[in-house]
Amino acid sequence: MNPELRADCSRCFGLCCVAPAFARSADFAIDKPAGHACPNLDEAFRCGIHTQLRERGFPGCTVYDCFGAGQHVAQVVYEGRDWRRDPASARRMFEVFAAVRILHELMWYLTEARDLPQSTPLHAALDDALSTTQALRDAVDELTPERAEHHRERIAPLLREVSAAARSTRSTSPGRNLIGAKLRGSDLRGADLRGALLIGADLRSADLRDADVIGADLRGANLAGADLSTSLFLIQSQLDSASGDATTKLPPRLRHPAHWSAAQATAKTRRPRRR
């Protein structure tokens, strides 16, 4: 995957800690309005509780992915001028960041789609979509989150076409409202799970190969032993919001979240001894 689409916080100004708003909830310990810096952001634009975010009530921060929008806006668009030293640019910088984040996520999906062997007949369309997406991102003076969202809506049918081609030999639709669903060991190969609510679902040992999971909400889902090795449009933030273990199979472009190992270790220490 293009490294340009991977977040590099060391080259950013903590934009994700300032631009978006968040509300006190299970994901965030406090309310924060848009455009205001999180109190945990230090002078060096680093999170002061980065290693304790989950323990301190900020799991929502651990599942956020800007797809490289942060460093692009900080270093390319604003050429290293941060919002503290240039407060007059802050509002516009945050707006551009929100728009670029949308477009970079779309570029991630389009790049993945082009790499699928079933997408060969659609390569010209995918190349054109990638080109126009990048051109929109680079037309900074005209860029707004609304324009980015409108562009994403225009590209969505192409991604659905790629998905249908990749799942053509086996396609099921188990539904969209799967909150808390008992799907342990289920054969979900080629399933259409686009935008599905899988919050708290039991997906242990489920076969999710070639399932389209774009936009699926996997918060609290148990993926231990599941096979997602060829799941379509799976992104890191979905995994970060779920639980799993070392036996969960993932695409090579993604990684096992650190908290999965920690949870597994905790479970082992709590396991009662046999007498």
Structural account:
The chain contains seven helices and no strands. The protein has helices spanning 59-62, 69-77, 90-115, 123-138, 145-166, 236-240, 258-270. The chain is globular and about 55 Å long. Helix 3 (90-115) runs antiparallel to helix 4 (123-138), helix 3 packs parallel to helix 5 and helix 4 (123-138) packs antiparallel against helix 5 (145-166). The chain is 35% helix and 0% strand. The chain starts with 58 loop residues before the first helix and ends in a 5-residue tail after the last helix. The protein has two domains: 3-166, no CATH class; 170-270, E3 ubiquitin-protein ligase SopA (Pectate Lyase C-like), CATH 2.160.20. The mean pLDDT is 92. The chain is mostly helical.
Give the distance, in angstroms, between the N- and C-terminal Cα atoms.
Answer: 51 Å
The shape, in one word, is globular
Q: What is the succession of H and E elements? A: HHHHHHH
SS element count, helices: 7
What percentage of residues falls in helices of 4 or more residues? Answer: 25-40%
The tally of domains stands at 2
Q: Major β-sheet, in short?
A: none
| Global mean pLDDT | 92
What's the count of strands? 0
Q: Which range does the strand content fall in?
A: under 5%
Task: Give the class from helix and strand content and strand pairing.
Answer: mainly alpha
Gyration radius (Cα, Å) is 20 Å
Report low-confidence residues grouped into runs of 5 or more. Answer: none
